[in-house]
Amino acid sequence: MKAILQYGPNDLRYEDIPYPECEPGGLILKVVAIGLCGSDIRNLTTDSRPGHYPQIWGHEHAGIVHEVGPECTAFKVGDRVASIAGSPCGQCSECRAGNNNYCLNPMPYADRQGGFAQYMPIPAEYIRRGAIKHLPDDIPFEAFGVIEPLLSVNGSHDRMNINFRDTVVICGAGPLGVIHARNAKIRGAKKVIMTEISSKRLEDVERFGVDVKIDGSKVDQVQAVLDETGGRGADKIICANPSTISQQQSLLMAKPGGIICFFGGVAKGAMTEIDSNIIHYKGLTIFGQTGGTSLAYDTGFELVCSGRFKWDDIITATMPLCKISEAIARCKAGEEIKISLHPWEDENGNEIRE
Fold first, then answer.
1. CA-based, 20 to 30 A from 99: which of 17, 43, 151, 220?
2. d(Cα 103, Cα 93) in Å, to the nearest integer?
3. What is the per-residue pLDDT for 169?
4. What are the sequence ranges of the domains in the chain?
């Protein structure tokens, strides 16, 4: 089968590798579509696995069950399924406390073959943990490239309790920024303000539920937010970008008693200088978010499958898997919001037969 193997930073090779072995209680997924995530781009362009190459990444995969082991009873060949990256055990103290995105016994997807391949082995334990879901017949495989990140977005919105009273600021108009905006509106946010330093990324973000857009390359973002809120500041602020500057500015944008989510991970080793007096005297709550609970995942899945969360204008391009380097470049340049990759297409977009 064909797969994308990483041998180092930006060293990506489209190669033939052996068909994977199916565990007795596992299955083999024929990957039909897989989203290109920001974390994938970071991993593929940096020294993400020093000493452990080659690596096959990819975690926003959906497809068709191609083979099942003799002990697998939950799925059958031909089933349309999607798989989340996380697989909490459900038994540890964090899982039992409702924080299964911080499971103490996870099955990290980086420790096994990912979905940037034509076929992907799904372990029996992964199935037992409920990390595989049936995909309705009327939902395209590409939609899972939005459902999976919506898991994390819902996790943060649950913790912030975004509701109809709120003015919400979203810092960053990338893929996760626009998903945050649309989800905040679904939850009833009174006003959604988006800040961004790329004028190109701000084009047409109104369709995602953004009421006010602020171009940080032209105006003072903090002052613009204060002006939009009558000098009071925003109720909820989400830093959906890898920026220490946004994290600093978020404290100044928040109202007294406001809630701030550091959603986007910054570069390794980057440090954010924060005036803790602002936190102290304004009574701010600041938290970080990675992943989401099983309930947050179920919520995102239901939102997309029910049609309440529109996904097809977030996936702005589809490309053959073999063109992943071009896809990365287009995403980094802000030319696309999110790209869905197809392992069963050749470089010209023609179907590859099994």
1. 43
2. 8
3. 98
4. 2-140+312-342, 150-288
Q: Is 231 exposed, middle or buried (0-12, 13-18, 19+ CB in 10 A)?
A: exposed
Taking the C-alpha atoms of residue 212 and residue 197, their distance in angstroms, rounded to an integer, is: 14
Quote the CA–CA distance of 112 and 167 in Å, as a whole number: 42
Given a cut of 90, whether residue 269 has pLDDT beyond it is no
Max CA separation in the chain (angstroms)? 65
List, in sequence order, the alpha helices (H) in the chain. 38-45, 93-96, 124-128, 144-160, 175-186, 199-202, 221-228, 244-253, 276-282, 294-305, 324-332
Which DSSP state fits 89? -
User: What's the pLDDT tens digit per position in 85-124?
Assistant: 778 998 999 999 989 889 999 888 788 899 999 999 999 9
Whether 179 and 153 have beta carbons less than 8 Å apart is answered as: yes
| CATH of region 150-288, choose from 3.40.50.620, 3.90.550.10, 3.40.50.720, 3.40.50.1370 | 3.40.50.720
| Region for residue 98 given its phi and psi (left: phi exceeds 0; alpha: psi -120 to 50; beta: otherwise) | left
